Amino acid sequence: MNSSLSRLARMGLLVSLLVCGLCDAMQRVRVGAYINDIQNLDLSSHSYSVDLYVWFRWREKDSNPPASVEFNNPYELWGHVLSAEYETPFLLPNGDYYQVIRNQGRFSKKLILDNYPFDKQILEVAFEDSELGADERVFVADENPITINPELKLPGFEIGKPRMTFPERAYPTGFGFGKNPLQSHYSRVLIEIPIKRPIVTYAVKLMLPVLCVIFCASLMFLFNPTYVDSRVGIGITALLTIVALQITLNEDLPEIDYLVLIDKVYLLAYLFVIAGLGVVVKTTWMLEKGSIDAAIRFDRIALIGLASLFAFAIALTLFLSKL
After folding, report:
1. Helical H runs in the chain?
2. Dist. CA 71–CA 88, nearest whole Å
3. pTM of the model as a whole
4. Model pLDDT for residues 76-86, shown as the tens digit of each residue
5. Residue 167 carries which DSSP code?
6. 12 within domain boundaries
7. Neighbours of 272 (CB within 10 A)
8. Is 67 in the same domain as 148?
9. Structural domains of the chain, count
């Protein structure tokens, strides 16, 4: 029994030594970032400009992690300006080596626009080591790892609190080195900056015009049914105005294969105006039969019914969007 306990003790010691050896072999690099500016958010190209500083702290004398950092989501790599703040890393009093890099350039992330113009986005900046995998070098958070310029403003958006995470990125390839793709794991630094549009401001800018057109289109129900030309003219003009508004709006959006929130609002507006023109046709046939009073009553009922349905559909659309 003593011999068994002795063997178990030796095995435990061996495992401990192995774990310690792996910990010593793995470089832990402390990372922090300062977001200096964000500019030119372009929905059509899913890109945005970011100016940020990233600092690194590490222990290994013969190592230089900032030199092998690679940004993972650049939009125009040729347009990035990457510079080190110091010619060589310098030694801090606590024994850490320290370096700061600054990157100015455009980054890309596929933006989800389902709730446009009331969408909330998360802008991302991601980087990792281009040489050493996660088994050799890992990034960890420094004290107060992420800070944003208190004077930073992104016109048209409210900026939330940024955060920094450290996911491990696995690539399903050996990159031509013949190694197992399952071993292609890299420690990644992911900086996320949440932004959102002011709801009231964009409701006035983008929703109010189409609602005004709907209000004007409703006037076709209030004209005497005998003024057929005027009623049809109001409906057609309203329809063309909605088309023009939607075309103008879509110029700022990328090519996407789904309807955004404002598209659904325009679709409801189309249905309202087309239904109104249908009511005009119906009352015209009623006039042919001499039922003027019945045609007027039908107009009023149609106005109340269609306006109520339109308001309910808009409210339901906004509710389902979970704004």
Report:
1. 2-25, 199-202, 208-217, 228-250, 261-288, 292-320
2. 21
3. 0.82
4. 889 899 999 99
5. P
6. no
7. 22
8. yes
9. 2
